[in-house]
Design a protein that fits this description.
Rossmann fold; 269 residues; alpha/beta; 5 strands; single chain
């Protein structure tokens, strides 16, 4: 049995990569369940707005027990490190676990447009859950978890810059690397998948992710995709962002130091 912890910075093409990895025979995707609990604790107003009862959300320990009981040969757990309580991280980042970290520049994350709204990702989160949203903390927690995995795990953590996933060639190279880490044979069959209006029905997806997708379209592009392709990474002008969106620019500036520490560890493909 293999446990793959897929830690991500939001808007970093993580769901698209999971569409591919979910094609690995015997794999099962457990999608953002701890984030569900984190939002229930930090931003219950968002759950109420989406029609979700915060009391229905499992605790970290309950979620951990569910994961441990799952019999799937390859469990792929997609989470933000900050959403997992500190005492639970060592129970996920175990000696035998494989840990993958996906990072993206904070300017590209915060200004990322959402298909279901006219707001950017940062504006949408600040408007709907300001009490639970701290972008810098997401980077800091990821860096801490990378360091912990490096000390704890047999397999060294794999850090991936989302820029690598902007090309088909880079995406395939990443998939081949992950296959080698979890000791499964790479196949061309992994590189295409069915398009869905919502999530892959074989995934375990909590109500929060489904509700966010329905209302804001966070995962629409990945869900409707059918394979990797070449894309042009968005350019950004920090000077212009500072003029037009000063609050966003201030958050970007806060995030750059931990981002630069993480991206230095990224694998070269």
């Amino acid at each position: 049995m293999v446990q793959v912890n897929f830690w991500f910075i939001p808007r970093s093409r993580s769901t698209a990569l999971l569409r591919c990895l979910a094609n690995i025979p015997g794999s099962k995707v457990l999608f953002e369940k701890f984030i569900w609990g984190y939002v229930a604790e930090k931003a219950p107003g968002l759950l109420a707005m989406l029609g979700i009862d915060p009391k229905s959300v499992p605790t970290n320990e309950e979620l951990l027990q569910q994961l441990q009981k799952d019999p799937s040969p390859i469990k792929i757990i997609k989470e933000v490190t900050k959403a997992v309580k500190p005492e639970v991280i060592p129970k996920l980042v175990t000696q035998d676990s494989v840990n993958i970290f996906l990072v993206r520049h904070p300017a590209l994350i915060t200004t990322s447009p959402l298909p279901g709204t006219d707001q950017t990702y940062y504006e949408n989160n600040m408007n709907n859950s300001p009490e639970g949203y701290d972008v810098r903390a997401i980077y800091e927690h990821m860096l801490e978890t990378i360091n912990y995995a490096e000390k704890t795990c047999i397999t060294s953590p794999l850090v991936i810059s989302s820029e690598t996933l902007s090309t088909k060639e880079g995406s395939i190279a990443v998939v081949k690397k992950i296959c080698s880490l979890i000791e499964v044979e790479f196949s061309q069959d992994l590189l295409s998948w069915e398009s869905y209006d919502s999530f892959d029905p074989k995934w375990e997806v909590p109500p929060l992710a489904k509700a966010v997708e329905d209302k804001f379209g966070h995962f629409t592009r990945a869900n409707r995709s059918t394979g990797f392709g070449d894309m042009v990474e968005r350019s950004f002008n920090l000077h212009q962002i500072r003029i037009e969106k000063p609050e966003t620019a201030a958050e970007i500036d806060r995030c750059i130091p931990p981002y630069e520490e993480i991206v230095k560890l990224a694998e070269k493909f």
